[in-house]
Amino acid sequence: MTRNLANWDRTGRFVLGALLVLLAIIGTIGLWGYLGAVLVGTAFVNFCPIYRIFGFKTCKDC
């Protein structure tokens, strides 16, 4: 896996993903909120498989 996420993209994914999971835990949104775990996971590994499929990168130096 080669890196394809910029730091701003990783930060945004982590924040949005964590917010979705938190809202799902407290019951504000439905079970679909647990999909935020995918965003958190891709932020930690610095790789997005969907970006890879479409040949998209947000980082300049990778």
Shape: elongated
Helical amount: 55-70%
Q: How many beta-strand runs? A: 0
Strand content: under 5%
SS-derived structural category = mainly alpha
Order of helices and strands: HHH
- Outline the low-pLDDT stretches: none
Mean pLDDT, rounded to whole units? Answer: 95
Computed CA radius of gyration, to the nearest angstrom: 13 Å
Distance between the termini: 11 Å
Query: How many strands, what sense, and barrel or not for the largest sheet?
Result: none
Structure, explained:
The chain is 56% helix and 0% strand. The chain has helices at residues 7-25, 36-45, 49-54. The chain is elongated, with a radius of gyration of 13 Å.
Kindly summarize this structure in a few lines:
This protein has 62 residues and is mainly alpha-helical.
List keywords for this structure.
mainly alpha, 62 residues, elongated
Please render the helix and strand layout as text.
Layout: H1 7-25, H2 36-45, H3 49-54
